[in-house]
Design goal:
CATH architecture of the largest domain: 3-Layer(aba) Sandwich
CATH class of the largest domain: Alpha Beta
Radius of gyration: 36 Å
Distance between the termini: 70 Å
Bound molecules: adenosine-5'-diphosphate, magnesium ion
CATH superfamily of the largest domain: P-loop containing nucleotide triphosphate hydrolases
CATH topology of the largest domain: Rossmann fold
Strand content: 5-15%
Number of strands: 10
């Protein structure tokens, strides 16, 4: 179980000074509080034998105040240092997870749900924080404070101690049981809470659809039901919690009853003094927390280690696409792309998405890839920047296998506009520049022109500095697509890939944008997937895919004359264009 925590060792070493100081302070507080009953004993004994003087009592009172003060200071110190340490572990672990997630390849994300990853980063990291902070404290208190208290009790009277300890295992046991149950209920509450927020978010995000179909009552009921489950889970948790403290009081009072009965006897017989009798009761009270801590710590550590195991599962996940050449080929990419026998099958699928594809694209050429939905166009494009790894066959750029180049180098040379136009919650400018440095103003302006975004900018409140996303303005589908193309063009890559990147832009605008791109990128390679004939016709070569296989290639006139798949697609397209004109 402790082995699961091994990745955290470095943070314990890093924070060792704070940890040692914090835990020493904790120990000091633990020991100091055990001396208070000793002072009580002395005052009472002095009182009972009539030796107490106002001066003596004042001294005792001042000592207690002094102890309480020192305890307060050191309690502050340990809480700050130990819990501070656990917060640092939390931060480091979260960053480590995110950093690692970024290195993982697309196949990992095909098989992993985003919600699961979020849960790891939130709930599991939190459980680990508990284990490294509160777990440490509960363990120290349970063992050290527990043993020391029992020691002080034994010092007063061995027999009384042994008898009065009888109910304490019950405290440990029930804390164990109840905190475990609370942990489970709490997880349920969290789960239903995230379901509730998710359904509320969905209902608000989809408000237009809901209104259009007049589904408000139905949607209202859905959210309301989620809310009811959430409340009932919360009540469950409250019930469990409600059992806990009365149980603990019961057990403590059971001990108290024993002490009064047996300890009272011993006092009468003169085996212990009245002061000892009172002090003993104080110790028994003090013992409640360490016993609870012992029961609780088991759960904290168990939960923490289960969480840590899940986190380790992610951290041990190796990026599938990472093989880096030891001696990478560096050299400016001219833009010749050549695929030989490229084959790829998605995990769990029977038919390959790409079946022995071979094609060549000369440097400076513009090619189009066409085919029906699901024919493998996107998958084909993904093999070039190694977003998916071909199983057999090879992709070469300028005659050099892509595996012989450094991965970052390869991807920097390719501008890839994917099918989903993803926008980040940031300004328009930052979405285009995307962290790249030293871009010239006139270049940005030029790219905005080419993507037909310049006019749109004027209509935004803050122009190119307008915020996008949740808190900012909403772009139309076409605007998003044009923006993502600008993001790719801005770095002037030797190879540009547009995967259905203008599907939501009207035909006329698409023609203008493609014209502008080809003009701007003379002598550079462009690979374009499009459904629009006006775009496809412009290509030097058109490749036609069907069910993962390359079935035709050539220019527009040639393919039309062949009267096969391409001409069928063409006829449909003509029809669509006719319809669009009306
Ligand atoms: P296109 O871009 O031509 O529409 P794709 O390359 O997206 O085609 O898809 C080719 C085939 O691979 C389809 O049968 C599709 O269902 C399948 N496919 C695409 N992405 C995945 C994925 N992440 N996991 C499993 N199968 C996929
Ligand atoms: Mg596609």
């Amino acid at each position: 179980m402790l082995r699961d925590f091994k990745p955290l060792k470095i943070y314990f070493i890093e924070n060792r000074q704070a940890l040692i100081l914090g835990l020493s302070s904790l120990l000091l507080v633990d020991v100091l509080q055990l001396f208070i009953p000793r002072i009580i004993k002395r005052s009472i004994d002095a009182l009972t034998i009539g030796q107490a003087s106002p001066g003596l009592l004042l001294t005792y009172a001042l000592i207690i105040v002094g102890i309480a003060l020192v305890m307060a200071i050191f309690r502050y110190i340990w809480r700050y240092l130990v819990f501070g340490h656990s917060r640092k572990v939390e931060e480091a672990l979260r960053n480590r997870i995110y950093k690692h997630l970024q290195t993982l390849s697309l196949p990992f994300y095909w098989k992993t749900k985003t919600g699961d990853l979020m849960a790891r980063a939130v709930n599991d990291v939190d459980a680990v924080r508990m284990a490294t902070g509160m777990g440490l404290v509960a363990l120290t208190d349970g063992v050290v404070l527990g043993l020391a208290t029992i020691g002080f009790m034994l010092y007063i009277n061995v027999r009384l101690t042994l008898i009065s300890l009888i109910p304490t295992p019950l405290i440990v046991y029930f804390t164990l049981i109840i905190t475990r149950r609370m942990g489970k209920k709490f997880a349920q509450v969290q789960q239903t809470f995230s379901e509730l927020t998710e359904s509320a978010r969905e209902a608000l995000a989809g408000i237009r659809v809901i209104k259009a179909y007049n589904r408000q009552p139905w949607e209202y009921r859905r959210v309301k039901e989620k809310g009811e489950v959430y409340i009932s889970n919360n009540l469950d948790l409250a019930k469990t919690l409600a059992i806990f403290f009365p149980m603990m009081t019961l057990f403590t009072n059971l001990g108290l009853a024993i002490v009064i009965w047996i300890g009272g006897h011993l006092t009468i017989l003169g085996n212990i003094t009245t002061g000892d009798f009172v002090a003993f009761i104080s110790y028994l009270n003090l013992l409640t927390w360490p016993m609870m801590a012992l029961g609780w710590v088991t759960n904290i550590i168990q939960r923490g280690s289960a969480s840590m195991r899940r986190i380790n599962g992610i951290l041990q996940e190796v990026p599938e696409i990472s093989s880096q050449p030891t001696n990478p080929f560096r050299g400016v990419i001219r833009g010749e792309v050549c695929l030989r026998n490229v084959t790829f099958c998605y995990p769990g699928k029977k038919d390959p998405a790409l079946d022995h594809i071979g094609l060549s694209i000369g440097a400076g050429q513009t090619v189009a890839v066409v085919g029906r939905v699901g024919s493998g166009k996107s998958t084909l494009l993904h093999t070039i920047p190694r977003l998916v790894e071909t199983e057999r066959g090879m992709v070469r750029i300028d005659g050099i296998p892509i595996h012989d180049r450094e991965l970052g180098d390869l991807r920097r040379s390719i501008g890839f506009v994917t099918q989903e136009a993803h926008i980040f919650s940031d300004t328009i400018l930052n979405n285009i520049v995307f962290g790249r440095k030293g871009l010239r103003k006139d270049l940005i302006k030029n790219v905005l022109e080419v993507c037909q975004l310049a006019v749109d900018m004027d209509s935004f409140p803050k122009g190119i500095s307008s915020l996008l996303g949740e808190k900012g303005i909403t772009l139309s589908g076409g605007q998003r697509q044009r923006l993502t193309i600008a993001r790719a063009l801005i770095s002037n890559p030797p190879i540009l890939i547009l995967d259905d990147a203008l599907s939501q832009v009207d035909t006329m605008t698409e023609a203008t944008i493609v014209g502008g791109i080809l003009e701007m990128r003379k002598g550079q390679t462009n690979i374009i997937v499009s459904h629009r004939l006006s775009t496809v016709r412009r290509a030097d070569i058109i490749y036609v895919l069907k069910a993962g296989r390359l079935i035709e290639e050539g220019d527009h006139a040639m393919l039309l004359a062949a009267q096969k798949e391409y001409s069928r697609l063409y006829e449909r397209q003509l029809l669509a264009q006719e319809l669009e004109k009306r």
